[in-house]
């Protein structure tokens, strides 16, 4: 878009003033309040219960055409096809596709019980492809890329659980993630999946989990963040690195691509024995990081996506033209008014902006949680847990939460500020991770980018070019258009 057409698009928005838009959003909220959406979005009670039921109580204030359109939007976005995942798992073009069953992947019976108890029916593509490599004898190294939310964590969790010998009361698998929240989340997946393996135990090498110097960890699996894991291996001698036979790096590109993490990961890696199996996973790998990974990991198996495969078709991407942060806020309210959002994550560039936005959303009546870098790790973990439980519907955050967090019900991601790198260029990897907080395992999701300057419009273009995907404009003042595009 040229600078002129940019100006034109922004001017066109003046047809409706922020005050009118706010009013409208409240009107929509009132209408929605007439009938509560089902809490379980897997159910299609909503559709079954009512095609005819009259829920038009507010007719004096909202005209019928508008109401029926809204009704349609709400119903469409609420009703998810129950079989969506099954359909995708049979579609060879989907990252969820698999030819084999979990049985054919030759998992131990107690692990099969674990995956089925989690409601998994079939493996995804990454699970089907990576598991045989991870479980092969002699052990093989692996660098694997797969789109956000396609089951990488579940894949390496199964490998870890299959690998350890429960009779040996020392740490055999070490798994490292970049944040406290992610380490906890991975541990929870392993605990759930391994619940029929009573003798396999796990310990968390994260800040606050104090160890006595020289006392060896007896748990077979240790999950942690790089600094604490390094302490456990070196200062505290709680783990004997030479006895580690499987080393997993989640979000591997961050772990080896950013200075602090890289130094710590390499220091841990150097202490491991030569034949320790190495597994690296991420949804993104910049070219330079990929080459570095190949240098560090001896003779690896490689699963790599083509650039155009990195984005998920199930996540629809839009941008909204705004003038300033107040205008972005109004657009957000309009969006919220028209789209039935189970849960949303909103990303801001700074803590200050995140605090401003969450305060304004609270005033509007939203149940908002704020998560940013200055909070203690315990506070952050509590915020995530409450959000996961659905106690808050909106999470306003910064990049600290852009990766890995898995909350099934997130149906909307908003980039209130576009992700940029140190030079002010598009941060494509962060963009992909942020939008990947929605559309988990085949679910539908919306990613909406707020554009308030020529610079942020340029960022959109850079992202489009990088992934070779169009991000389409959305007019949050136009209900018909929203119905068409979000329906
Ligand atoms: N085979 C499966 N069948 C059904 N659901 C699955 C399966 N594998 C994983 N899931 C679910 O899909 C969601 C995403 O999985 P997971 O967190 O492992 O993805 P990921 O690829 O690690 O994501 P990210 O790139 O964001 O870290 C989780 O809620 C998980 O429980």
TrEMBL record:
It catalyses: ATP + H2O = ADP + phosphate + H(+). Residues 133-303 form the Helicase ATP-binding domain. Pfam families: DEAD, Helicase_C. SUPFAM superfamilies: P-loop containing nucleoside triphosphate hydrolases. GO terms for molecular function: ATP binding; hydrolase activity; RNA binding; RNA helicase activity. A motif (Q motif) lies at residues 100-128. The keyword Transcription does not apply. Its main location: cytoplasm. It is an enzyme of class 3 (hydrolase). Residues 100-128 form the DEAD-box RNA helicase Q domain. PANTHER family: ATP-DEPENDENT RNA HELICASE DBP3. This is RNA helicase. It comes from Monopterus albus (Swamp eel). The lineage of its organism: Eukaryota, Metazoa, Chordata, Craniata, Vertebrata.
């Amino acid at each position: 878009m040229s600078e002129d057409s940019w100006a034109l698009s922004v001017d066109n928005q003046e047809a409706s003033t922020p005050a009118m838009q706010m009013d409208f959003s409240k009107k929509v909220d009132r209408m929605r309040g007439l009938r509560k959406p089902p809490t379980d979005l897997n159910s299609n009670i909503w559709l079954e219960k009512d095609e005819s039921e009259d829920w038009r109580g507010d007719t004096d204030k909202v005209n019928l055409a508008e109401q029926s359109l809204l009704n349609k939007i709400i119903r469409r976005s609420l009703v998810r096809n129950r079989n969506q995942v099954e359909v995708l798992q049979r579609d060879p073009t989907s990252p969820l596709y698999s030819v084999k069953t979990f049985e054919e992947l030759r998992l131990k019976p107690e692990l099969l019980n674990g995956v089925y108890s989690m409601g998994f029916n079939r493996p995804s593509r990454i699970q089907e492809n990576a598991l045989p490599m991870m479980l092969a004898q002699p052990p093989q190294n692996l660098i694997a890329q797969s789109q956000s939310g396609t089951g990488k964590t579940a894949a390496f969790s199964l490998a870890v659980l299959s690998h350890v010998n429960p009779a040996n009361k020392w740490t055999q698998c070490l798994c490292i993630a970049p944040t406290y929240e992610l380490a906890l989340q991975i541990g929870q997946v392993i605990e759930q999946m391994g619940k029929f393996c009573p003798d396999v135990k796990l310990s968390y090498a994260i800040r606050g989990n104090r160890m006595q110097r020289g006392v060896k960890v007896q748990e077979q699996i240790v999950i942690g963040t790089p600094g604490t894991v390094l302490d456990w291996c070196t200062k505290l001698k709680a783990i004997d690195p030479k006895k580690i036979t499987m080393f997993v790096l989640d979000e591997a590109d961050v772990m080896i691509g950013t200075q602090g993490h890289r130094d710590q990961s390499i220091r841990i890696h150097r202490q491991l024995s030569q034949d320790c199996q190495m597994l690296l996973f991420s949804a993104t790998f910049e070219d330079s990081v990929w080459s570095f990974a190949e240098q560090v990991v001896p003779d690896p198996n490689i699963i790599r996506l083509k650039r155009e495969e990195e984005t998920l078709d199930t996540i629809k991407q839009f941008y909204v033209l705004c003038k300033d942060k107040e205008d972005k806020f109004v657009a957000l309210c309009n969006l919220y008014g028209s789209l039935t959002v189970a849960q949303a994550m909103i990303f801001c560039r700074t803590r200050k902006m995140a605090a401003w936005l969450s305060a304004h959303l609270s005033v509007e009546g939203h149940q908002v949680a704020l998560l940013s870098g200055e909070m203690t790790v315990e506070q952050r973990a509590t915020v995530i847990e409450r959000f996961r439980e659905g106690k808050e519907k909106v999470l306003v955050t910064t990049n600290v939460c852009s990766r890995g967090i898995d909350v099934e019900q997130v149906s909307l991601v908003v980039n209130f500020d576009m992700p940029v790198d140190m030079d002010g260029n598009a941060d494509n990897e962060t963009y992909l991770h942020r939008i990947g907080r929605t559309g988990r395992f085949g679910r539908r999701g919306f990613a909406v980018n707020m554009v308030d300057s020529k610079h942020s419009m340029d960022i959109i273009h850079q992202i489009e070019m990088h992934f070779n995907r169009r991000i389409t404009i959305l007019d949050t003042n136009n209900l018909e258009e929203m119905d068409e595009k979000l329906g």
